[in-house]
Structures are given as C-alpha cells and as structure tokens.
Design goal:
This protein has about 400 residues and is of the alpha/beta class. The chain has 18 helices and 14 strands. It is about 45% helix and about 15% strand. It has an eight-stranded mixed beta sheet, sandwiched between helices. Strands 11-10-9-12-13-14 form a six-stranded parallel beta sheet, with helices on both faces. β13, α14 and β14 form a beta-alpha-beta unit. It is globular, with a radius of gyration of 22 Å.
C-alpha cells in the first residue's frame, strides 16, 4: 500500500483555507486506499500532543516554539527543526513519497530528508511565499527579502522531483521562470461535496437574531485580509442601499483588518445595514451560507490575487449561493461571467454596488445560475475527482529507476 507523507505549515484542528484543502486531499487519498500522514512545522500553534488524530487524520508535530531573533536565522533554525522531525518520522513510518506543501520553508526541510533517504518528493505550491507576504502586509514587492524569497522558491521548484500548483496562474509564472512545463501539474482547489455539498435550509431564528428578515443579503464568509477588498464592499453599501433599500451586508469571520473594517462600518451612513458576526465554528458555517443571497468576493488587483485562485467562491457555488467577484485573474479561472457568477471591476465600490444591485433586480435567472454553478463544482472542482491528478505523478515517481530506499 502506497504511503504518502504530507509536509505542512499547519493543520487541523486549526481552521483556515490551508487546513481545509489539506483535509480534503488527505481524506480523498485515504478513500483511494493510500496510507497518509501529515507533519507540521513550528508555525502550527494549536496546543496538542506530538502525534494526534483529528477528523480521522493523523498529524505529527515539529517540537518547539518558532525561533526568535533575526528573521533569516530564525527561519533557518525552523527549517532545521522541521527537517529533524521529518527525518525521525521517515525512519519510523517509511513513506514511499514525500508531498511537501507551501510555503517554501516546508519544501526546503523536506528536500533535505528526501535526498538523504532516496525518497521522491513532490512540492505543491498554493501561493508564492513572497506574494503572500505582500498580501498579508508583512512584505513589500521588490524588496531584498522579496527577491531572496523568490530565488528560494525557484530553487525549491527546480530541486523537486515534481511540482503541483493550484491554478494556471501559478503554472504560467513557473514556466516563465524556465521550469519545464512537463514537471508541473495543476491540482485546483475543490470542494468535498460529501461534507459541504448539501445546503441546509435557512434557520428563521438565526435570520431574526441577525436582523435579516425580508432583507436582500450580501455576504462574505472567510478571513479578513486587506487584499480581500472588504473595505471596498463596505464602501459600496451606500450606493447599494440607495438602489436596493432592503440590502444588508453580512460579514462572517475575522482577521488582521477586522477592527479597521468595523470602524469603517460605524462611520458609514448606512451602518445599520452592515452586520458583523465574528468567527463561527466550522460546523456552523453552512447555517450562515444559508442566510446569504449573494456571496461577494471583492479581491483587490495585485500579483497575489491575479495568480492565486481562492477556495471560498467554490464553497459558495456548492452551497447553491450566487457569486459576485472582482475580475482579478484568480477569480477569472473559477468564474465565468454571466454563467457561473458575476464579475465586476476590482478596487471599484461603484462597480460592486451596480453588479450586486443588478443581481437582485433579476431574480428570474437565479435558479438556473445556481444550478449551473453547482454542476461546475460537482464536475470540475470536486475533490473526489481532483485527487486523481496526483495518482499518475506518484506512480511515475515510484517507478523511477534511480529511486533508492535508504531508510535505516
């Protein structure tokens, strides 16, 4: 039986788009009859034992807190600690393939171990680390650190036996760096339809609690980062409410810019049309999707959003919700304007308001739009079928004539 060791930044029981994609991959691989485990680095911050089972999945932890001090030295120490923990697990469990997931620190740690033991390694990129740092406000495009991180990313890709990316934008960028296209597969974001594909009915009690009775509800459910463009969504509300007086905005989640968004909403002349819920347990998220008519994703135009496809619009489609999103590259890979969703110009509150108002004015097409979007997810973005993209890569790596099993 094939054993796959996934090298991760963090995992369940922490909740993020990263952990939910990981869960979907591991669950689907187990469904194929493969043995899978994960090992996380020091940035996994949830308390727990060194090895634990969460949602039926086994995860091992790299011991110790993240190193302190100079950023470069800190990261090298964390890589070394992660590599030591991976090495110990490899000696104990003897995986056939190491599957490292971004950020690049994980690939660097995993490559040390893979080379030492003659185990093939695939590196999966969900976003380039340098661009993610710009997106979350901890880095600057064009800075020396940005340049160095980009060089490390390119080196890790060249050293990997195979590379997976989540979208065509990332694949195109790697090819432009000189990476052989034959080395790269696209494993797009998907939805676990067994877990998330059965929409629940709207709960009238929750509707009343949120003050949404009779409202045209626009919603966002996810993490509050600056690049998500939620400030533009709040700025669009005066125009939207003037066009649709019953419109309300439901914001579910939290993150680095939450307080700034709350302050902005309080200063809005239509503050009573904006509802903040905060973070909710993952097993309750479906109840909030059921409250929303149109899920809005107003991501700002920048390199990160042009290259990377998000997960949330797919979840909304699976839940039978209408989707409206900015026309950045990552959204254009997921959403066909006028077919599976509605696209509007990024960084433009007026465009947001006009697009969403137009959706509420044309309810006659809602059922067809929802059905087409859900069918797209079931056919092209369902993890039970997406997982098949990995299988030929694993088989090719395991069939390498130079593969050596040197685990002591």
């Amino acid at each position: 039986m094939t054993r796959i060791l996934h090298v991760l930044d963090h995992s369940l029981p922490m909740h993020s788009g990263y952990t939910f994609r990981t869960r979907a991959i591991l669950r689907a691989q187990m469904g194929r009859g493969w043995e899978v485990r994960g090992i996380t680095g020091r940035r996994h911050s949830a308390a727990g034992p060194q090895a634990e089972t969460v949602d039926g999945l086994t995860f091992h932890r790299t011991p110790g807190e993240p190193a302190v001090g100079n950023a470069v030295l800190r990261e090298w120490r964390d890589i070394a600690a992660h590599a030591d923990a991976i090495d110990a697990l490899v000696r104990q469990w003897r995986p056939d393939v190491i599957h490292a997931h971004s950020p690049v620190l994980n690939a660097m740690a995993a490559q040390r171990v893979a080379k030492r033991h003659g185990i093939p390694m695939i590196y999966e990129i969900r976003a380039f680390w340098e661009d993610a740092a710009v997106g979350n406000g901890t880095g600057t495009e064009g800075s020396p650190r940005y340049w160095l991180t980009r060089q490390l990313e390119t080196h890790a890709v060249r050293a990997a036996d195979a590379v997976a990316v989540i979208c065509e934008g990332l694949r195109g960028d790697l090819i432009a760096r000189g990476i052989d296209p034959a080395k790269i597969i696209v494993s797009p974001n998907g939805v676990d339809m067994d877990q998330f594909g059965a929409p629940v009915p709207r709960d009238p009690a929750l509707t009343a609690k949120l003050g949404l009775e009779g409202a045209d509800v626009v919603g966002f459910i996810g993490s509050f980062y600056d690049y998500e463009g939620l400030d533009d969504l709040i700025a669009a509300m005066p125009r939207l409410v003037r066009a649709r007086p019953r419109a309300k905005l439901l914001l579910v989640g939290g993150g680095p810019v939450e307080q700034a968004l709350r302050d902005q909403a309080l200063a809005s002349p239509f503050t009573d049309h904006i509802v903040f819920v905060g973070r909710v347990p993952h097993d309750q998220v479906e109840n909030y999707y059921a409250q929303v008519d149109v899920l809005a994703y107003p991501r700002k135009a920048m390199r990160l959003t042009d290259l990377v496809t998000p997960l949330k619009p797919l979840e909304a489609m699976a839940q039978g919700r209408l989707v409206a999103a900015s026309s950045v590259g990552g959204h254009r890979e997921l959403i066909e304007d006028g077919v599976t969703g509605t696209l509007f110009a990024p960084d433009d509150p007026a465009a947001i308001a006009a697009s969403i108002a137009g959706l509420f004015a044309d309810r006659g097409m809602w059922d067809d739009r929802r059905a087409v979007a859900r069918a797209f997810v079931e056919r092209d973005r369902n993890w039970s079928s997406n997982i098949l993209r990995y299988e030929p890569v694993y088989q090719r790596l395991l069939a390498r004539p130079d593969k050596v099993r040197a685990v002591a």
